[in-house]
What we know:
The first copy, chain A, is an alpha/beta fold. Chain A has helices at 20-33, 44-50, 83-95, 107-120, 144-165, 180-188, 203-215, 235-245, 267-285, 305-310, 317-327, and strands at 7-12, 37-41, 53-55, 100-105, 124-128, 167-173, 193-195, 221-226, 250-255, 291-296, 299-304. Helices cover 42% and strands 18% of the residues of chain A.
Amino acid sequence: MAQKIRKIGVLTSGGDSPGMNAAVRAVVRTCAYHKIDCVGIYRGYEGLIDGDFEPMDARSVRDIINRGGTMLKSARSDRFRTPEGRKIAYDNLVENKIDGLVLIGGDGTFTGGLIFNREYNFPVMGIPGTIDNDISGTDKTLGYDTALNTAVEAIDKIRDTASSHNRLFFVEVMGRDVGHIALNAGVGAGAEEILIPEENLGLDRLLESLLRSKASGKTSSIVVVAEGDKTGKNVFELKDYVDENLDGYDVRVAVLGHMQRGGSPSCYDRVLASRMGVKAVESLLEGESNYMVGIQHEKMELYPIEKAIKGKSHINKELVRVSEIMTT
Amino acid sequence: MAQKIRKIGVLTSGGDSPGMNAAVRAVVRTCAYHKIDCVGIYRGYEGLIDGDFEPMDARSVRDIINRGGTMLKSARSDRFRTPEGRKIAYDNLVENKIDGLVLIGGDGTFTGGLIFNREYNFPVMGIPGTIDNDISGTDKTLGYDTALNTAVEAIDKIRDTASSHNRLFFVEVMGRDVGHIALNAGVGAGAEEILIPEENLGLDRLLESLLRSKASGKTSSIVVVAEGDKTGKNVFELKDYVDENLDGYDVRVAVLGHMQRGGSPSCYDRVLASRMGVKAVESLLEGESNYMVGIQHEKMELYPIEKAIKGKSHINKELVRVSEIMTT
Amino acid sequence: MAQKIRKIGVLTSGGDSPGMNAAVRAVVRTCAYHKIDCVGIYRGYEGLIDGDFEPMDARSVRDIINRGGTMLKSARSDRFRTPEGRKIAYDNLVENKIDGLVLIGGDGTFTGGLIFNREYNFPVMGIPGTIDNDISGTDKTLGYDTALNTAVEAIDKIRDTASSHNRLFFVEVMGRDVGHIALNAGVGAGAEEILIPEENLGLDRLLESLLRSKASGKTSSIVVVAEGDKTGKNVFELKDYVDENLDGYDVRVAVLGHMQRGGSPSCYDRVLASRMGVKAVESLLEGESNYMVGIQHEKMELYPIEKAIKGKSHINKELVRVSEIMTT
Amino acid sequence: MAQKIRKIGVLTSGGDSPGMNAAVRAVVRTCAYHKIDCVGIYRGYEGLIDGDFEPMDARSVRDIINRGGTMLKSARSDRFRTPEGRKIAYDNLVENKIDGLVLIGGDGTFTGGLIFNREYNFPVMGIPGTIDNDISGTDKTLGYDTALNTAVEAIDKIRDTASSHNRLFFVEVMGRDVGHIALNAGVGAGAEEILIPEENLGLDRLLESLLRSKASGKTSSIVVVAEGDKTGKNVFELKDYVDENLDGYDVRVAVLGHMQRGGSPSCYDRVLASRMGVKAVESLLEGESNYMVGIQHEKMELYPIEKAIKGKSHINKELVRVSEIMTT
């Protein structure tokens, strides 16, 4: 039987994403609603080990729902990968009478939480906070929607100058292992070509496509490239390759970079964060543990953390096809 | 047996919404992809009756994916409500050899399309374009996501000044019959209270809530109100009511208004529009008719127009509860 | 000879404007740079009377440069209009060893400061913070540039929907006594007509202009109206008037309202705030008093507060002419 | 005596900047107002040589005031650098009965115009369109204000993630020869250090500054770097240098790039463009030639193109000092 939860700790870990603050706020306010205590843990697992704790109430999270980043800070923790580190963390939790943890982060965050849970049978509940949308068990991760808008708005600006000058731009967006951002931002920005890790378009087909595009009278082009695309070339190498193999294009590169992680969260991400925060706390209160809160078919669902880690987020094949139709 | 489709007409009708242009673009490009003709029909059913047609190809829809409004214009048509008007419309379609119609709009647009289909057995396919998200058979309507972001960004600005002055603001958002925008924008903007048509909060409870909020040290408040909320008072009357019945608040009103219909669509709406446009055209090509293209559980689905019209879009009860927890 | 300044107080008063936080930050950091103490005074003159003071250092103003509103809050103070109130304020300053005040606000704020200075010979320095740009002695007030961008972005959205529906919109922007916002936002948004307090266009000419516009094939129109325009009608009355006197227009109203006061400040306002904050503190340190810091010809200048209050900000006649050429 | 002007040509050339479309619109509408003809020339001097002309009226420039880029396209022209190329251009102008040219662009554009004027005594009038603000004779160039806002908004987002992770970011902004963008965006974004071409801060002082910043408890930092700063290292080399010479910082790089050239112009740039367009056309009509329209002390002024080219835009020393005070 699950012990009764009287105090919950919340931390953010891994790469930050827009909506993390809104999720922290929701966790804190749900605790207040249920009249249990809430503690903010700074710098993820590092703060857990260092005992960097702060009691939080509704006032602590005032005016943060619209802010990017995470007020609890984030960090990677090598120490938490060691049994010694986790032991200290556990002792800190016990000493502070914390009975459950809400972990906001991605794959690495969840892996740490799972190991910790297995060692100490400590109740943990995950919230998927990452812009990459690369976690299975949830249709959307927290921050993904905002990152797409940021990417599309930046590409809109780049298109202004590309069109004015008849230029070809390679625009690199985030996504080392999965092409969700590239595919969606590419379709959203009306890109002429999209290169993602899941599909090996091949350099030949890229050249062909650019030639066809040029022949049809298009004088400027945007090619959106995921960091981890499968051509084996990064955007700068792609530029060189096209410069060498294709005449009459003025080729440029833009790397959107970390900008995509920041910014005020979209309404979608703020609402998702609020729902996930409520669900995470109430699930802990109901005695659940080792789940990630996901959104599936517009509903809040619990999904085993273990499956979330091992699972794979698949690219939407229908959208790949849509992108091909839109760019022909 | 469905006749073979060789030329498709597309129109936008009813209140405009962000993403309509992206949907028109997708319809046009999908026709080009399948090597069939496409015709833009201006001013909705009015243009159908007036024969205000224009052939469209990929070039016609260049650089419109990121624009608000609709390049095809929209209008309400009293004439299309008469058999005589619809007869002229039909003759125009036959004369122009148009074999199928994609109708982008809301409830009224679909009703017109359904009647027209029944009279002339003319293939029609609907795309739900409206910011209100009030159509059943689709988890999201086109433009809804953008409208939420517009509302939340405006309320963020209002909060800046509300906080600086310890003021109470009643902010009216769109939504005459349904509270989706109010509920989501309210949660997203961290409103202290949300008034929607689906729930009769009652004025007494509103006063109580504001008193409680004040007692807890909150010195400024945002109350988000749907146009059609059930208190029976509009925002200006609400202001007067609170002025009379609650001391110590400097109460103001903000009506967000038509701004919510415009603006560059969010990435979500652009992608949704692209998917729906492809699906609408390909469904017509496959011989389908009388359906609306919806998104359900992240997938494109056909939904009978008749059910879409008669159905009702229900407020998310879980989110109502989340809003109560967040505002306590 | 001016006494040596060792501690400076800073307050914001009157209507808030974007950039006030950036100015507070600059005041605090300039004090730190010169190794003198700085005290934040909450809620303007109210906090001065209530002794609502807080010592501030570089950390206190971290991460506020990009935020709308004012972290020091603002309020109107009836008590400060009385000699008794000012006496208490003065005693609080003496008790807290504050030797100089930076006053961020508009006309009313400066009037209060001037009276206070005359009674107690207390060093005061003003920073013009108001979105209305209605203060003489400075080419721009703090927040004005941001408010213009906010207004123009909102009108851009309204134009999307106006164009889609062939509608005429009356858009009311702030500006009770001066038309700077209306004139600049009107030109910036490409409005078809602009009504400002300084020019009595007259209703007849408005109708003529709309008729001409319609005759030339324009099917939608935006008329930007300053709150205090001289037609003697507010936007709702204007709508009714046009409805009655002009056929074939679907007329709507949009009131932008308090949204214009909030939002993250533009780069211009952040830089202006930083420069003004430095100048205000250093001028006090140099023994100056009773001046407002203004920007004239791109340079920081001191301008007597007395003249700033009595002066009048004139509408740019050349820009009025530009607006006429653009809208013909 | 100047010949009477009956037809004006307008072109955009060099790097595009936000507000160019608004300036083209103003030129076209001012011509319409004065009932003279106007011709758009595509792709700058290239189109002048190719005879790529199009008559323009008020309708041609509808709905472009808010768009980035330039509808007339821009290009660099090697041919216009040759007497033969300019001869063809002149013949095209004569053949098309164009009596005057409005040239929207930067340094290179103006140099071409000046040579052309000297050879053929052809009336030319310049409008300074470039984001770099590097032209003397005008307090602001067209597009500069928008570029600053774009840069600051991007850095705000980067700061979100920098703060969450205690990271140091080198952010490169545009400005090969002048540091206006870096200095203003740096102050506006609250950067901890700003590197510009005009001041050789030196790497030692940079390290010292970062050390001091760290010692004072700051855990994240933004260093804004102009493309052409004088450390002799680009942002990637700076990162490597700091990685090697400073412990305990997680250093990252962001290059804002061409995004800064695009986007919807700010209200300031739209108004400035409108004023400059009117002034340029009316100055040609008054028989003036070989001037650039500048804004000086908030007024439209004519400035000899020759001086504009040879002149140098100086960094604001007062603002350099403000930046030092803000970052100490």
